[in-house]
Amino acid sequence: MSAVTIRERVQWPLLTPLLALLVLCLTWFWHDDWPALTLVTVALIGSIVAAVHHAEVVAHKVGEPFGSLILAVAVTVIEVALIVLLMTGGGKGASTYARDTVFAAVMITFNGIVGLSLVVGARKHNIVSFNASGTGSAVTTVVTLAGVALVLPSFTTSAAGREYSPSQLAFAAVASLALYGAFVFTQTIRHRDFFLPVSSDDTGRATGLLDLDGDGHADPPPARAAWTSLGLLIVSLVSVVGLAKLLSPTIEDVVADLGLPYTVVGVVIALFVLAPESIAATRNAARDRVQLSLNLAYGSAMASIGLTIPAVALAMIWLSGPLELGLEPIQMVLFVLTIVVTVFTVVQGRAYALQGFVHLVLLGAWLFLSVHP
């Protein structure tokens, strides 16, 4: 390996987040012309790639499932900040922005990240294996969170429309936070082994935990490098969300000019925000570590609901106007289909490419119906 190549590999992960943050600062008040928007887009893509790199460094240092949890929570915390920030700006879609963004996160993670991971993993390894106990408990937790936060508001009668009353919203916030905390405790302390990659036989049946120390990978980075990557991961994610926000007015204008539903704005921004997790999950799947891909997918969906609902509930103390959390009929049907397919995917603890394609078709149906409801 040449000296130039070594310098490039050392420098670009360090410089990209800082340059992206600089672009964010320089264009915060000036981003209405195409050169500035092009610069913002390039910086956004660079931030996404850098975030994946630094997340993998941190994950390698702290081990799994802590690494997947750190990336999921870091992305979601900043995503929550973006949701609240956009809600404070008011506008046409302020009342449904939280619902649309959270639902988009669920559909992207359950069908997009999971589907792509299964296809990539099965294409390379024929059949992929994972721990059905750990993955099943994650799916159960997300379904419960989504049921309380997104489904029940469509059927309650204490408030008009698809809204919770203040007391109902407070209950949903506390329940979401408590359930998310209980799962994190289970994943990281009580039953950590259920969320580690598994080895398998020729038929894809799990035979035990995968030996992560004997897979030929490099030794964990030193503590200083891990702390540096953690800081640059946060900088990268701040840049991702901030740059996505700068692009959102342009996205809104394009959506309005094309006559598309406002929910498309939330879909596009969610795709940008979840890009680091999508890339990281795909890489893990290619390495035959689909368990880590599923940890990222379901952990992100769980954090998106479990942290967003309490934050939005707290923000409603200062924000005026309605907050619609209940799903629309089309969203409800797609959510039910997604859950049914997901149950059949995870119940056996092994999967092949067809199951991934099924999830990707559901993702395509959701994207198409978001544009043409």
Automatic annotation (TrEMBL):
Pfam families: Na_Ca_ex. Keywords: Membrane, Transmembrane, Transmembrane helix. It is found in: Membrane. InterPro entries: Alkaline_pH_Ca-Antiporter (IPR052946), NaCa_Exmemb (IPR004837). Residues 37-188, 229-370 form the Sodium/calcium exchanger membrane region domain. The keyword Disulfide bond does not apply. Signal peptide: none annotated. The chain crosses the membrane at residues 12-30, 36-54, 66-89, 101-122, 134-155, 167-186, 225-247, 259-275, 296-318, 330-347, 352-369. It is a multi-pass membrane protein. This is Calcium:proton antiporter. It comes from Kineosporia mesophila. The lineage of its organism: Bacteria, Bacillati, Actinomycetota, Actinomycetes, Kineosporiales.
